[in-house]
Amino acid sequence: MIRMWRRCMEASRSGCTSRFQSGLGLGFLQRWMSSEPQKRFAALWGNGDFGRLGLGSLDSQWRPAFCPAFEKESLCDIACGGAHTLFLTETGSVYATGLNDFGQLGISDERGYTLEPVEVTGLNKDIIQISAGYHHSSAITVDGELYMWGNNSSGQLGIGKRTAKLVPEPTRVESLAGINIKMIALGSEHSIAVTAEGEALSWGGGSGRLGHGDQSSIIGFLSSKSEYTPRLIKTLEGVKVKNVAAGLLHSVCIDENGSAFLFDERASNKLGFGEANNTTSPSIISKLPLSEEVACGGYHTCVVTSGGELYTWGSNENGCLGIGSIDVVHMPERVEGPFLKSPVCKVSCGWKHTAAISGGKIFTWGWGGSHGTFSVDGHSSGGQLGQGNDVDYFEPMMVTFDRDIKALNVSCGFNHTGAILECT
Fold it and tell me: Which segments constitute the RCC1-like domain (predicted)?
């Protein structure tokens, strides 16, 4: 519990104030401010299908809307997945909302989706970190135990090959018993974790994105494309990893010296590797200053340096790199604009959109759901940028608020976005 409290306090020191524009939840916010001004709450925006925004309806939100479910609780973290969202309270409880077709909500009943956050069952210890993949979820306890649930078709839960393909309730990863897990990142079909000693482990589908190279784990047999239990990334032995991120087809690790290592399912121009032909083992990313934070999207990557600079590269469809164009970038390029005046402290990547926190303000760019993408009867399902429209933005744009708000954390899902905020 002490570790969790410290983590929340560290997050609260990372930003300043910003402004919010949304009619939904305004009365809730006013009540909250009058009684508990330091409570941390959630705002969400974007596609509302399957209740992933947790607002009690299926409506999409073009601007941030406050989640009223936690009026009596303070939140510590949020994690947006494919079409579901996880919330972590400051008391160490986990809640989930949205699509539940693979059991990714971790609830005991068979509901296909929920419109409002429901407490995740089966977690009997305080939780300090949550993560959401495309169809699977995870939680780390205060003493470093790892629990996972949801889709297990490619072994992404790490609980063994002879287990169910769908696991609807949190299940402890028994092979990690006695190992203190510090953090975890979930991709589409794979997972990557870091121990308290800085060792990197990965499992799930797609051998390249796991970083194990093409070598077989048993002499004489070719390696499977899936790992069903956590496996040490041998190439990173002796490297103390402090941060990890997982995307659709690739993963990135950052070590204690600020070096970034990348590995992917297949080298391609879309991911920004030019003529590289083997990135199935971790390869150091050159031309990057000392790195602190990292995020992986569908086909793009973002790194925050120790000086608060933001670098991006990879596919630039819909302008998700934030560099003012839609050109593919093969090497890290700095995102300037508002970040020349104020450093970046947090970044998150969705499928084709990106969000960052700078000076306590939230900035978004990339795919906004332009031109009615995925529309039904002419109604666009966009809005994940929170700018009030479905337009693509090629440069960072500030998300506006109508109250003094400090952003503590931000998380991008497939086509929705969530944030943890605090009234100043």
Answer: 44-417
* DSSP letter for each residue of 321-352: T-SSS---EEEEEEE-GGGGTS-EEEEEE-SS
Task: List for the chain the helix, strand, coil content (%; round to 5).
Answer: 10, 40, 45
Q: What is the DSSP letter of 4?
A: H
Q: Name the band, by pLDDT with cuts 50, 70 and 90, for residue 411.
A: very high
Contact predicate 369/392, CB 8 Å: no
Task: Identify the CA nearest to 194 among candidates 119, 141, 254, 247.
Answer: 254
State both tokens at 304: 């925050």
Distances (CA, A) of 115 to 118, 264, 330, 358, 393: 9, 35, 40, 31, 29
pLDDT level of residue 27 (50, 70, 90 thresholds): low
Q: Could you tell me how many residues make up the chain?
A: 424
- Tell me: the pLDDT tens digits for 315-340? 999 999 999 999 999 899 999 999 99
Q: Give the pLDDT score at 424.
A: 83
Burial classification of residue 373, based on how many CB atoms lie within 10 Å of its CB (0-12 exposed, 13-18 middle, 19 or more buried): middle
Which amino acid would we find at residue 335?
V
Tokens standing for residue 150 = 């949801």
Phi-psi region of 274 (alpha: psi -120 to 50; beta: other; left: phi over 0): left
The C-alpha atoms of residue 203 and residue 225 are separated, in whole angstroms, by 10
Q: What is the mean pLDDT of the chain?
A: 86
Question: How many C-beta neighbours within 10 Å does residue 333 have?
Answer: 18
Residue 230 pLDDT > 50:
yes
Q: pLDDT value at position 9?
A: 41
User: What backbone torsions phi and psi does residue 46 show, to the nearest 5 degrees?
Assistant: 115, -155
DSSP structure string for 244-290: EEE-SSEEEEEETTS-EEEEESS--GGGT-TT----SS-EE--S--S
**C-alpha 18, offset from chain centre:** 22
- For 65, 274, 284, 304, the CA distances from 278, given in Å and listed in that order, are 44, 11, 13, 25
Helix (H, G, I), strand (E, B) or coil at 300: strand
The Cα–Cα gap between 63 and 73 comes to: 23
Q: Which of 298, 253, 4 is nearest to 139 (CA)?
A: 4
* pLDDT at 31 (0 to 100): 54
CA distance 268 to 315: 10
Q: Which residue has the higher pLDDT, 277 or 152?
A: 152
